[in-house]
Write a structure and sequence with these properties.
The chain is of the alpha/beta class. Helices cover about 50% and strands about 15% of the residues. The strands form 2 sheets. Strands 7-6-8-5-9-11 form a 6-stranded mixed sheet, with helices on one face. It has a 5-stranded mixed sheet with strand order 2-1-3-10-4. β1, α2 and β2 form a beta-alpha-beta unit. The termini are far apart.
Length: about 375
């Protein structure tokens, strides 16, 4: 090789080495570790494990460009401070349920669930095709958060009570754990409502700090062991007919992502939204059988008088939430329009079929 060829080859090799040296730090700098804080105990069935699945999906789908590390309630911040942690940049993501933030703005309730509101399929329909997501984006942006639906438990149970509830009078003076506007409705009926994160409920029920509680449904309630203290298990829950769990991302962090990574985060959350709902449907029936047959739980339906009281109080508190400001009013109007339209179809499709299936095949016997 002559001197000129050698110099040319060396220059090319040096350029390649230089490019490699520059590229490695650039790639490393492009990798991020996000903290996801949750309102649930870590690895708690359904809620905690669903949050973990979402975190793992983002990590895998970005090939590690965004590695999401999950922190259970209290590990990094207290459960009810998860939203603030993401809003102020302490964490990049939260997984929770947005009615916990009703003190910041009452419209957050609608993007989780409101009493006598939408079922899980109806809630998804409103968020995805009824204008709900756009209203949610507008509300959350004011706090520096980009929200996504990221789970649903389906219609919840009415709760655990030490003593039977036979009339509205039995509710007066009762100390009960219930969040959101469902709790506000109970206050109208004379209940002393106490807000507690999931991890604190059992101890409060055990100590007598509360007389009754709702949580989710048979699968989660069995795991928390409420049957050891209260044996009266009521249905249906008026307060959470289709609660959407949410993943909120710090808005600045989200806006800084590439369009590809934005789509990955969105679709990882949407995937968990469906997966969690399916898991609760799959697990609740078996858990209910265990509670009744193995743990002596008495399954009770709320008397018509009591449920009517729930419904009347619920309509009042939901309407009151709309008076907060223009955004609350627009959210309320959009939500109630969706409820009216979707209910007409739900009544003759899902509910109509389910009623006839149980009647003709006697599945409830």
């Amino acid at each position: 090789m002559d001197r000129r060829s050698f110099l040319k080859t060396s220059a090319l090799g040096a350029a390649a080495v230089g490019a490699t040296a520059l590229a490695a730090p650039a790639i490393a700098q492009g990798r991020q570790e996000w903290k996801m804080v949750t309102t649930w105990p870590k690895n708690f069935p359904g809620l905690g494990t669903g949050a973990q699945r979402c975190a793992d999906r983002i990590t895998k789908m970005t090939d590690g460009r965004i590695t999401v590390k999950l922190y259970g309630a209290g590990e990094l911040v207290p459960a009810f401070e998860s939203f603030d942690a993401v809003s102020n940049g302490t964490a990049e993501m939260y997984h929770g349920v947005d009615y916990y933030w009703q003190g910041k703005h009452p419209a957050f309730n609608f993007f989780a669930t409101v009493p006598m509101g939408l079922t899980a399929p109806e809630q998804n329909a409103w968020l995805m095709f009824g204008g709900g997501q756009q209203l949610w984006d507008e509300l959350s942006a004011g706090f520096g958060v980009k929200p996504f639906p990221c789970g649903n438990t389906g219609v919840q149970m009415g709760g655990w009570f030490r003593e039977p509830i036979e009339s509205l009078e039995d509710l007066k003076g009762l100390k009960m754990r219930m969040p959101g506007l469902g709790g506000e409705a109970l206050r109208k009926l004379g209940v002393n409502v106490i807000a507690l994160p999931g991890g604190e409920i059992f101890a409060a029920l055990q100590s007598g700090a509360i007389d009754a509680t709702e949580w989710v449904g048979p699968w989660n309630d069995l795991a928390f062991g409420f049957y050891r203290i209260a044996k009266n298990y009521y249905y249906p829950g008026f307060h959470e007919p289709g609660p959407t769990l949410s993943a909120g991302v710090n808005l600045d962090k989200y806006n800084a992502l590439s369009e590809t990574d934005k789509a990955i985060v969105e679709n990882a959350c949407i995937a968990e939204n469906g997966a969690m709902y399916a898991e609760f449907v799959a697990k609740n029936g078996q858990a209910l059988t265990t509670l009744v047959n193995q743990h002596g739980v008495t399954l009770r339906k709320f008397p018509d008088e009591v449920f009517q009281g729930f419904a009347d109080a619920s309509e009042e508190v939901v309407a009151e939430a709309a008076k907060h400001d223009d955004l609350a009013k627009r959210t309320y109007e959009s939500f109630m329009k969706a409820r009216k339209e979707y209910a007409a179809w739900t009544d003759i499709s899902i509910q109509g079929y389910a009623n006839e299936r149980s009647r003709t095949l006697k599945l409830g016997e």
